[in-house]
Amino acid sequence: MMPLKLCIPLLNDKRQDFNKLAHLWQQVDAAGEKAHVHFDFSNCDFLRPNAVAFLGGLARLIEYRGGLPQFETGTIRQEIKTNLYQNGFANVMRIDSPSWDGNSIPYREDSHEDQNSIVHYLKSNWLGKGWINVAPTLANEIAGQMWEIYTNAFEHSQSAIGVFSCGQYFPKSHELLLAVADFGVGIPSNVRHHAGKPIHGKEAMRWAFAPGNTTARELPFPRGMGLDLLKEFIRINHGHLEIYSKDGYARVDSKGEVYENLTNFFDGTLVQVRLVCDDTLYLLSNEQESSPFF
Amino acid sequence: MQIKVKELVGENAMTKADGEKVYSLIHEPLIEGQTVELDFEGVEVFASPFFNAGVGRLYADLQSDALNAGLKINHLSSFGQRVLHRVLDNAKEYYLASPAHRQAIDRIVQDTASAM
Fold it and tell me: What is the ipTM of this complex?
């Protein structure tokens, strides 16, 4: 069997970049089981964390299907290589190079829902590298909100290969970025099964973001609220949340919410969150609710 | 009866599985009319699956009056309080729905799950 040569382009985090990622997945999907896939970076001079998380997951997906992903390391430009080695991605490329504690936020793979490890990553490697000044209470709140992304990925995606994430800090804008990818069934597919009828991708995403709605498959008690809490947090704190899931897209920021259909997509979900890291901007939940809990 | 949540689940109260640990300890005593204190001292990070599975589902068997009288929540951070309030508002709405409506929702989810 001839190996598939996967040409990795420049990958930022705009819509056109997502389309490129979807196209990469489509090529791998079309190659079928036991495919040998060569990742060629000759035309790539930039990789955002969403692309790193996605490519890591794609390599594991190829392995899961009995294939062999091979990273053509000789085609990777030095600055990208340095970053990939530093953030721990070298392991995906089958290169024995330990990561080191630099400015990058580590790439990670989670095959199961290990909340303590993920919270440690979020608090120590993502928020707490000393590049931003966050009070412990704010760090705990942000970690809890980001966890909602992970728990949604684990609970709803049914991803056989787990969840992949990576991050970045932007010193000039004081922004933190977290990207989380899975290769599961996607939110719209879950909503369609839940409703038992065809629903457009954008309507499925709108439904999933509504308070109390959930497609969780276990019974019987009320669920949901995670995405609703996250949405509120992002909106109040001038953050930016984007979710590409199967054929549905959702964006939440301080201007509101946007839902769209996607014509070019992959089987899975890619979430990207941007947070402004100035704790004077944050509205913490300091207001003590005076009403009884029940 | 007092439950130190940190001793039960650690510093992070986030998952459905940890919520179920709490529920399994408090459900019967509350039904029997005992007073239960959930002490969250030392618990730092919260997420909705924990409260959905641990506390929100108590509404299936208990009314607000009984819960306010029987279940004491102490040392819960501001963020934890906000998550809990949101989860409980949702749970109340779920259990206030007519049984037929709730069964219809559950049946759709169950059928979907078994079909997957």
Answer: 0.86
